[in-house]
Amino acid sequence: MIEVEVKVRVGDTNEIERRILYKGASYMKAVMQHDVYFDFPDKRLLRDGCALRIREEDGRCMMTFKGIRRNSETGSREEIETSVESREEICKILERVGLMRICEVKKKRKIYYYEGWKLSLDNVEGMGTFLEIEGKANSDAEYMEKRERIFELLEHLGLSDKDVERRSYLELSLGGREK
């Protein structure tokens, strides 16, 4: 599965929410997410542009591997995800096999859906507010189609591709690569 994604820092969350709803998106829910990121002591995942994340949300826990970015314009990349029973226990296992916690990210997320896209308005602790637009692709052809469409949607929401934040929340948390 290829995650096709862009993220934009936003100032006026009420205005962005108004635009999202005016466009016809459906509000789904608000959630709290607690992410714990892991890497090897030599930081090879981070160095290669990958991430290993444990996410707890509404009592559920997911483990996600995010592969190398497919391009420099979006956060699109391979994503492999599976549910796990306990955040605490999977964190212990990862630490016992030699991985280390490199950071934690906490956010309040409002989720909307629009024509197959997931729009998330994120208030990220210590970082600010972002709009994340995400879709899934099962092939390279579908990825290319969605990559074009994601920028059209961004424009319809009154945002520009110049506003795209190319760093992941992990990179932002660690003070990584610039926009």
Description:
The chain is an alpha+beta fold and 179 residues long. It has one domain: Hypothetical Protein Pfu-838710-001. It is built from 5 helices and 8 strands. Strands 1-5-4-3-2-6-7-8 form an 8-stranded antiparallel barrel. A hairpin with a 3-residue loop joins strand 7 and strand 8. The longest helix is centred in the last third of the chain and has 17 residues. It starts with a strand and ends in a 6-residue tail after the last helix. The mean pLDDT is 92.
Features:
alpha+beta, 8 strands, eight-stranded antiparallel beta barrel, Hypothetical Protein Pfu-838710-001, 179 residues
In which order are the strands of the major sheet placed? 1-5-4-3-2-6-7-8
- Shape annotation: globular
Provide the helix percentage: 25-40%
Given helix and strand content, the structural type is: alpha+beta
How many E strands? 8
* Percent strand: 35-45%
What is the string of helix and strand elements? EHEHEEEHEEEHH
N- to C-terminal distance: 25 Å
Query: What's the structural domain tally?
Result: 1
- DSSP summary: helix tally: 5
Biggest sheet overview: 8 strands, antiparallel, barrel
For the record, what is the CATH homologous superfamily label?
Answer: Hypothetical Protein Pfu-838710-001
What is the highest CATH level, the class? Mainly Beta
Structural Rg: 16 Å
CATH structural architecture: Beta Barrel
What's the CATH topology name? Answer: Hypothetical Protein Pfu-838710-001
What average pLDDT do the residues reach?
92
Low-confidence stretches: none
